[in-house]
Amino acid sequence: GLVGDGVGVALVGPPGAGRRRVAHDVIRLARVAGAGRGELPDLREDLPEEVRRSTLVRLLDATPERVASAAEVIARMRRFGALAAPLALVATCTDVVRAEGLTSVTLAPLDRSQTHQLLTALHGAPVAPATVDAWLDVTAALPGRVVTLARALRPERVAHASREELFMAAATLHRARLPGDLPSDARRVAV
Question: Which residue, among 2, 126, 108, 106, has the nearest Cα to 57 in the 3D structure?
Fold first, then answer.
């Protein structure tokens, strides 16, 4: 198959766990492997009615019900010989999905050692244990959050940021931009 023997894979975890990054990597590798066999798989955001070429269906941040439904349709299409070419699902969601032929992979937080290694790689030099503790507190050791927050800081701050500095930087990442046409009285309340 395009992504193993089953109907596909669901990458599960909380926001910031790196689900999307892993999904993009899985898709890229599946497409490279397909191209190596002579056919670059199509990439779709929904299930096709008809499959004439190898196809990957990408469902990012989908509900478990939507992922399960898509997996069941693919399994049924395979079972009844309704596929002229391989069809596979790559999905991300926050909850484990149970469906025939679907592999659920839970992305877990990093342990202390892995967080230290990631911070060292991002900084380019060893990071003090107290700094690792601050990063663990602020990011819950979720790889996507660690990388996103590190990118928001100056590189030299990665190894020396205090817990407070990390919380402040994390808070600025989640501020939504106000629409330009927001009335002035609403803007005063929002900021």
Answer: 2
Q: Which amino acid is at 132?
A: V
Chain length of the chain = 191
Closest CA to 23 of 61, 53, 51: 61
CA–CA separation, 120 and 44 (whole Å): 37
**Pairwise CA distance, residues 100 & 28, whole Å:** 24
> pLDDT of 165-177, one tens digit each?
999 988 887 655 5
Cα 89 to Cα 9: distance, rounded to the nearest angstrom: 6
125: DSSP letter: S
pTM of the predicted model, to two decimals? 0.72
For the record, the structure tokens of 44 come out as: 């779709």
Q: Are 11 and 103 in contact (CB under 8 A)?
A: no
165 with 172: CB under 8 angstroms?
no
pLDDT at 190: 45
